[in-house]
Amino acid sequence: MRAVDALAQLSGLSRGAVKRAMNAGAAWTKEKGRRVRLRKATRLLPAGTPVWLYYDEAVLSQPIPEAQCVRREKGWSVWFKPAGLLTQGNQWGDAASLLRQAERALGRPVWLVHRLDRETAGLVLLAHHRQAAGALSRQFQQRQVEKGYRAWVKGEVREGGMIALALDGKPARTRFEVVRTVAAPLPMTEVDITLETGRLHQIRRHFAELGHPVVGDPRYGGAAPLPLQLLAYRLRFRDLSDKVIEAGWPRAQWAEAGFYQREEGVA
After folding, report:
1. Per-residue confidence at 263, pLDDT binned at 50, 70, 90?
2. How high is the pLDDT of residue 267?
3. pTM of this structure
4. Mean pLDDT value of segment 37-48
5. How does pLDDT run across 133-190, given as a tens digit for each residue?
6. Domain 3-60 belongs to what topology?
7. Is the predicted pLDDT of residue 211 greater than 60, yes or no?
8. Does the annotation count 168 as an active-site position?
9. HEC profile for the chain?
10. Is it the case that residue 213 has pLDDT exceeding 70?
11. Among residues 5, 117, 192, 217, which one is catalytic?
């Protein structure tokens, strides 16, 4: 039986609805003992083939932000991931993910070497083959990649410093400098951040512990009139020939990415 027919029969959905979900990466089967996405509607499935369909109309109807390729080389590329776009897919699909968009744009498989939270906009490095993925991943693991962020945090932060606070039982260090403070649309401080470690939600958790949560953070900061004010705007790493690469997202485009902009020197 064709995959689309099997899933329609099992789910009670129309073939059109099933095809839409399959195109979004919400259908799964098992190959060689592991689950893989089932994308081809006309694929013939032998009797007894396990299949899963994670159908959610709300998920399928969500607008999908579009990633942009910032720089493309033979073994890797740097992409700008807008806020609201997953770095990689989940069981409900991968159409709304950077990884899938990059694969479609490049016409080839790509490998993640690091991630950004869904709510965070910024630069993500992708590898184009396994050798590149291994080499670039090691740089992240050995803390040889410099990652620069900008954030607006609630309240007035008078001076920069280092936040050294373990997260989930592991050392975590966040270095930051104060850029400026404004009084409206709410009292907040712009900070330039360099991560020395890469723990889950590290920046968001560290500044929340400091008493200055990132503005717009729905998990750690409460309500705010702005979306999450966190932007991964800079990456510095070595390519496969050991050449230093610096990639940045132009400040002129920060506002378009949802990062609050106001004339310098105005409080």
Report:
1. low
2. 39
3. 0.91
4. 96
5. 999 999 999 999 999 999 999 999 999 999 999 999 999 999 999 999 999 899 999 9
6. 3.10.290
7. yes
8. no
9. CEHHHHHHHHHCCCHHHHHHHHHCCCEEEEECCEEEECCCCCCECCCCCCEEECCCHHHHHCCCCCCEEEEECCCEEEEEECCCCECCCECCECCCEHHHHHHHHHCCCCEECCCCCCCCEEEEEEECCHHHHHHHHHHHHCCCCEEEEEEEEECCCCCCEEEECCECCECCEEEEEEEEEECCCCCEEEEEEEECCCCCCHHHHHHHHCCCCECCCCCCCCCCCCCCCEEEEEEEEECCCCCEEEEECCHHHCCCCCCCCCCCCCC
10. yes
11. 117
CATH of 65-142, one of 3.20.20.80, 3.40.720.10, 1.10.10.10, 3.30.2350.10: 3.30.2350.10
